[in-house]
Write a structure and sequence with these properties.
This protein has 373 residues and is an alpha+beta fold. It is 16% helix and 32% strand. The longest helix has 26 residues. InterPro entries: Cholesterol_7-desaturase (IPR050584), Rieske_2Fe-2S (IPR017941), Rieske_2Fe-2S_sf (IPR036922).
Length: 373
């Protein structure tokens, strides 16, 4: 079975392109939307500097409310444009003014003015451009399109829409940078077997409560999902929700994992976004929405739990790095590592489909996986 939405993605033909052959732990998924910031973090007239996939990116918002993104380097003398300010001049509209020599750039990256020029110097400022990035603001999140073409490209699909974004804005947001390539961060996130050893809280589970699991998986748009099911009996944290919760866990390229929990008419969405900063650093952002009463009463407890999980995972990443620096061969087993294998297959198919200018074909097939945790 193949998700029908996958067939709708028809990339711009690139007849001379070749599919990347980078090994696991190298390179990035391109021609994709990456989570960059909460919309609430991008204030009116603000200029914020981010690094995405090793590229400096300015994300700003005009006074009219438009969010935009551009390369955070002035092409004149390389000063970061985010260190400047948003100004408005007659005939120019709102522009980003470089702090070094005052060159001004419109939100689309076109140079609007070079103040040092005199009237007798017929230099066409609008021939100079800073790379601009397509940007979308939806569900309170800001996404940036990272193209495979260094000159930029127009998106051929939209960012994901997440189920369960209810109860107003996010109830809880926590982020941490891991010293890890995004591939290792993604595989660590979806790994079903590490929990009893890395996350040994009394309210979660331990190695003494391990038992066999059997979960049905299905292909989804640009990824796959663990089909909706009742949580495992040794996952104690779900019990605070009461009732009979049913959960579905979805992964989507380039690095989104979300768990949508339904408890009667109430919902909880736990979204984890993995954003590569550069080759050896990845930002993990966990965002929770819910209209369940428990988030009003237990938020401090939940925040402590999320921070504990992130710190434990970050500590394990640091331990893993001790071994990875020797570039060892890695052994992947069934069924516990099948999701990790799917991720690598999805990445390869994504690159090949775009290089061959054809629709993406999801390599994941419906199956049931079994493991102990």
């Amino acid at each position: 079975m193949k998700a029908s939405a996958d067939a709708a993605v028809k990339p711009t033909p690139k007849p001379d392109a070749a599919a990347p052959t980078a090994r696991f732990g190298q390179g990035f998924v391109r021609d994709a939307w990456y989570f960059a910031a909460l919309a609430s973090d991008v204030g009116e007239a603000s200029l914020k500097r981010y690094e995405l996939l090793g590229e400096p990116v300015l994300i700003g918002r005009t006074r009219a409310g438009q969010v935009y993104a551009m390369r955070d380097i002035c092409p004149h003398r390389a000063a970061p444009l985010s260190a400047g300010r948003l100004v408005e001049r007659p005939g120019e509209g709102e522009t980003v003014e470089c702090p070094y020599h005052g060159w001004r750039f419109r939100p689309d990256g076109v140079c609007a003015a070079i103040p040092s020029l005199v009237d007798s110097q017929p230099f066409e400022a609008d021939r100079i451009r800073v790379r601009s990035y397509p940007v979308r603001e939806r569900q309170g999140l800001v996404f940036v399109w990272m193209s495979a073409d260094p000159r930029g490209s127009e998106p051929d699909h939209e960012p994901p829409l997440f189920p369960g974004v209810v109860g107003g804005g996010p109830k809880l947001v926590e982020a941490m940078d891991f010293d890890s390539h995004v591939d290792h961060a993604v595989v660590g996130l979806m790994d079903p077997a590490h929990g009893p050893y890395v996350h040994q809280q009394w309210w979660w589970r331990s190695e003494h409560s391990m038992h066999e699991k059997a979960k049905a998986f299905e292909p989804r748009e640009h990824g796959f999902a663990m089909a909706r099911h009742a949580p495992s009996s040794n996952s104690r944290a779900y019990k605070i929700l009461g009732g009979a919760p049913a959960t579905e866990i979805t992964f989507r390229l380039p690095g989104y994992r979300w768990e949508h929990i339904q408890v009667g008419e109430r919902q909880v969405l736990a979204l984890t976004s993995l954003t590569p900063i550069h080759q050896t650093r990845t930002r993990i952002t966990q965002i929770f929405w819910s209209d369940h009463w428990v988030f009003g009463l237990a938020r401090p407890f939940l925040r402590q739990g999320v921070r504990a999980f992130l710190k434990q995972d970050g500590g394990m990443v640091n331990l893993q790095n001790e071994g990875l620096r020797y570039d060892p061969a890695l052994i992947w087993i069934d069924d516990a590592d099948t999701q990790a294998k799917w991720y690598q297959q999805l990445k390869r198919e994504w690159s090949k489909s775009r290089a061959e200018a054809r629709p993406f074909e999801n390599p994941v097939k419906p199956t049931t996986l079994r493991w102990r945790s």
